[in-house]
From TrEMBL:
It comes from the Bacteria. Residues 19-302 form the ABC transmembrane type-1 domain. The keyword RNA-binding does not apply. It is a multi-pass membrane protein. This is ATP-binding cassette subfamily C protein CydC. PANTHER family: ATP-BINDING CASSETTE SUB-FAMILY B MEMBER 10, MITOCHONDRIAL (PTHR43394:SF1), ATP-DEPENDENT PERMEASE MDL1, MITOCHONDRIAL (PTHR43394). Residues 333-562 form the ABC transporter domain. GO terms for molecular function: ATP binding. Keywords: ATP-binding, Membrane, Nucleotide-binding, Transmembrane, Transmembrane helix.
């Protein structure tokens, strides 16, 4: 039950609704038992008396109990479901509050399909926690104890039999099936996650699978995963049916015992025969309410596993978040002996790197693929926490700053930029919600997208745009933001050289006095940079101006010579 403590706390936030639902559930259960007990008493009384007044009163009580039972059942459903929906709302908010600080590092540990399965499927599974796990034992326990207390006034022996039956049907049998289910669980949730992973990859990679003629193999794998998931669900259904059958059998046997013990007490003169039918009917009615407990093991295990799978994602504590804001005015960025390794990787992606980026300067970071350039950019953005070393912005250590305040001061264009389903206008307004149409059209013109109307549709992830168009639209978005720190990771790698140079000139012209940090594989045009940082294997191997690096005839000079020989 420890795994469900957090869910229980979120459920009990709505104490009033939960308590009201339990109250109406008890009234409905008690009225149902009273209805059956009154029926038994009326049958016996009708056989022994001819007084119509008594029979009319008892018949009126039957109608009253039936009305109370129906009305209370409605109130129970209303408040229990309202509490459930509120709990789900609290759960989603709580989960995303804990998940958000872990992004984007969370994507390195979990595949997107698995995350989707947990965020959607497991959260939805917990809707059964109140209705099927927490609520039924509480209500049944109260109804049974009240029924046993009432029965004890007529026969302690029958009350004892009903108490033993309550222990068996409400506690023992569900507990045994819970243990059995935990031991023999078919890992349905894991198979559902596997199916979600494969389905997501199938949809994302459909074109590549088609090109490489692997579509049939992937479809077969997906079909196998679906078949395994269906088989696992079938076994769970059979297990639930077995639990229901066993519980119903125990309830039936207890009612027979009540009848047998009651008949013995009547024969021994210890029980008035008038009440025998009433006690038997009370027993039948009380044990009819144990049907939800047959499903308890399945729902309990489902809720427990769902809570565990959700907790696995957010269990790792997020890095402490600062509270300070960046000061106004020109800002510098300083990285001191910084090192960072991706989880599970032995080699450092960035190893003992120190650099100082001054306000108003233009810096290019170059090096071969895999040298750590893009990781260094992520560290400058304070996306990943450093393993060692120090990052400071404006003289303030990054761990003391609000992450949002850092990004607020930056114009960022990464290798992969996300575009939302909508229009060009809606995607540009992300950077500046108050931007006018004229301002947005001017930004598009500066990146040579003046032919794009603002009303042009943008599909999910910008699928209807080419690679170069996506990059230029991302730069236009950064232009609209208009901050003084520019971090550009291969911003024009998919654009032709002439257009790329023109865009750079436009950026430098608009951003006079701004700080530019650019990652590039293209070594052309670096003469305009104030500083060039050359990286290899996660380290800075040399730095300086273009002229200084060429005069040294070291690593950068060799890269330039290779580029010239290839494109000569």
């Amino acid at each position: 039950m420890n795994e469900l403590k957090h869910v229980l706390r979120l459920t009990l936030i709505e104490k009033k609704d939960v308590a009201t639902a339990i109250f109406f559930g008890f009234i409905a259960g008690a009225a149902s038992v009273a209805l059956m007990g009154s029926s038994g008493y009326l049958i016996s009384k009708a056989a022994l008396t001819s007084h119509m007044t008594t029979l009319v009163v008892m018949a009126a009580c039957l109608k009253l109990f039936g009305f109370i039972s129906a009305l209370s059942r409605y109130g129970e459903r209303l408040y229990s479901h309202r509490a459930t929906f509120t709990m789900l709302s609290h759960l989603r908010v709580s989960f995303f509050d804990r998940l958000a600080p872990l992004a984007p590092g969370i994507f390195g540990k979990y595949r997107s399909g698995d995350l989707l399965s947990r965020i959607v499927g497991d959260v939805e599974s917990l809707q059964n926690f109140l209705l099927r796990v927490f609520y039924p034992p509480v209500v049944l326990g109260i109804v049974f104890l009240s029924t046993i207390f009432f029965s004890s006034f007529f026969s302690m022996g029958i009350a004892a039999v009903m108490f033993i039956g309550m222990l068996l049907t409400v506690i023992v049998v569900p507990a045994l099936f819970s243990i059995r289910k935990r031991r023999t669980d078919g890992k349905t949730r894991a198979k559902r996650g596997s199916l979600a992973i494969e389905a997501t990859e199938f949809l994302y990679g459909f074109r590549d699978l088609k090109i490489h003629q692997q579509l049939n193999a992937k479809e077969q794998q997906l079909a196998n995963d679906a078949a395994q998931y269906n088989e696992s669900q079938r076994k769970e259904g059979l297990e639930e049916n077995l639990a229901q059958s066993i519980n119903s059998l125990v309830a039936l046997l207890v009612s027979f015992f009540v009848l047998g013990v009651g008949a013995y007490f009547v024969a021994a003169g210890e029980l008035n025969g008038l009440y025998l039918a009433m006690l038997v009917m009370i027993s039948i009615a009380a044990f009819e309410n144990v049907a939800p407990m047959a499903a308890f093991p399945a729902y309990f295990e489902e809720s427990r596993k769902a809570a565990v799978r959700l907790e696995e994602i957010v269990a790792e504590p997020a890095a402490p978040r600062g509270t300070e804001q960046l000061p106004e005015g020109p800002l510098d960025i300083k990285l001191t002996r910084a090192s960072f390794s991706y989880p599970g990787e032995k080699n450092a992606a960035v190893d003992d790197v120190s650099l100082h980026l001054k306000p108003g300067t233009k810096t290019a970071i170059v090096g071969p693929s895999g040298s750590g350039k893009s990781t260094l950019m992520q560290l400058l953005l304070n996306v990943f926490p450093l393993d060692h070393g120090q990052l400071s912005i404006g003289g303030i250590p990054a761990e003391k700053l609000q992450q949002e305040s850092i990004w607020q001061k930056m114009n960022v264009v990464l290798q992969e930029n996300h575009f939302f389903y909508g229009t060009v206008r809606s995607n540009l307004l992300i950077a500046d919600p108050e931007a006018s149409d004229e301002k947005m059209e001017l930004a598009l013109a500066k990146v040579q997208l003046e032919l794009f109307p603002l009303s042009m549709a943008v599909e999910e992830k910008g699928q209807n745009l080419s690679g170069g168009q996506k990059q230029r639209l991302a730069i236009a978005r950064a232009l609209l933001k208009g901050k003084s720190l520019w971090l550009l990771d291969e911003p024009v790698s998919s654009v032709d050289s002439l257009t790329g140079q023109a865009i750079y000139e436009e950026l430098f012209q608009q951003g006079k006095g701004d700080m530019f940090v650019t990652i590039s594989h293209d070594l052309a045009g670096l003469e305009k940079m104030d500083q060039i940082i050359v990286m290899e294997n996660g380290r800075i191997v040399e730095s300086g101006s273009y002229q200084e690096l060429m005069e040294r005839k070291s690593y950068f000079h060799q890269l330039k010579q290779i580029e010239n020989s290839v494109f000569a």
